[in-house]
Amino acid sequence: MLIRAADATHVYDSLDLSRLSGALNPAVVVTAADLAQTGMRVPEFYAGDLLCPVGKTPLYLGQPVALLIFEDFDAFDQARLALRDAAVLKFGKETGPVTMPNYGAFRFTRVGGPTPDAPDVYSPVKNGWVSPGRFENTGPPMGAPLPIPTGQAYAEAATYGENIRAELAGNNPALLVLDREFETQSVDPMALEPESGLAWYDARRKNLELVVSVQSPYEAAESVAYLLGNAQAAFKPARINTNFAYCGGAFGGFDHTPFPLYVALAAVFFPNRPVRLANNRFEQFQSGIKCHAFKIRTRIGVDRATGKMIGFAADHALDGGGLANFSADVATVGATTALGIYYVPKVDVTTYAFHSRGVTAGAMRGFGTLQTTTAGSDGR
User: Fold this and answer.
1) Distance separating alpha carbons of residues 263 and 380, to the nearest angstrom
2) Does an H or E element contain 174, and which?
3) N or C: which end of the chain has fewer CB within 10 A?
């Protein structure tokens, strides 16, 4: 059983399991201190605390704080009911949500040639991708180029981009400008089966057997190996055999998920016995990978005489939630597909994905395109 934080604005002080006594006492309680003591490592893709340490504010709502392991299912089931409405986590000083750098920020600017077949005057394909130079690491990207050395690569794109925006804002009577704002919500994929896993760690043979249901099996195997690769001898398997089951309709929600890491931890902290870790539907909703919430502003300029679109500018803000996951990639794909199938000679799109205390968002089906192309189509 994973105990998760329902508060991400106060310092986590302690874990109160006084409601669990006698047969309901967990056989093992794993905390952040145990992970540090035994030498567990967090894979770079999941950078952040696997379990929130005492004295820190949780990174996000639903961040695991402790892993409780029980001898049998009956004890687990009764303990889950006993803790369901209990305030088992004690919090102290209010800090507000944790502030972290953006997960990614990009600007995609294109100025086409005199005809669609002519070489571009400027484009990411011709001139390369750019990210804004910044004084700060959070908040929306800067519009105009900054007078700092790290902003020089960005300056050319920003200059072209600001010219496009000025043209759309110029109140030209020959140009129809559609200016719209859109928002999409954080969406759960509602996989037919919540995340779950089985494991067995044979401490004598140092053999770890896992059965998990994910969409990225090679990544999951490598992440588990990295997690345990530098652990103390008693917790470090010599061989890991990972078996992968069907997902039951995950649509990206089981792609690069940290859940297998917790399954592996349960096994090595409770050796020589089979363990099962499984979300119920509420826990999956509370912690599973989500579709990004977008805030979008789109401006489209249409030549009244020809009916052709001649300019497009958009700004995207993606709520990536508590961990980076694929947020930077989703921002990129959403931005580069915002125009759908349409050709427009002058395009300027800024996008950034930011950290929040929300549930982690990742590689949901569509990968940002459903949000941005829908906004573009509705805007037209």
Assistant:
1) 48
2) none
3) C
Q: CATH topology of 2-97+189-287 equal to that of 104-185+290-379? A: yes
Fold of the domain spanning 2-97+189-287: Aldehyde Oxidoreductase; domain 4 (3.30.365)
Give the helix/strand (H/E) hosting 12.
strand 10-15
Q: 108: which 2 tokens?
A: 């995609």
User: What does the block give as tokens for 196?
Assistant: 């779950």
Query: What is the per-residue pLDDT across 45-74, written as a single tens digit (0 to 9) for each?
Result: 999 999 999 999 999 999 999 999 999 999
User: For residue 219, what are its two tokens?
Assistant: 């990544």
Residues 6+ apart with CB under 8 A from 178: 298, 299, 300, 302, 379, 380
Per-residue pLDDT tens over the stretch 200-242: 999 999 999 999 988 889 999 999 999 999 999 999 999 999 9
One-letter amino acid identity for 370?
L
Share of the chain above pLDDT 70, in %: 92
Q: What is the spatial distance between Cα 56 and Cα 32, in angstroms, rounded to a whole number?
A: 11
Rounded distance, CA 203 to CA 217, Å?
Answer: 24
The residues with which 187 forms a beta bridge, in sequence order, are: 291
Question: In this model, does residue 317 exceed pLDDT 80?
Answer: yes
**Could you tell me the CA-to-CA distances from 195 to 171, 174, 249 in Å, in that order?**
53, 55, 11
Beta carbons within 8 Å of 367's beta carbon, 6+ residues apart: 252, 326, 329, 330, 333, 334
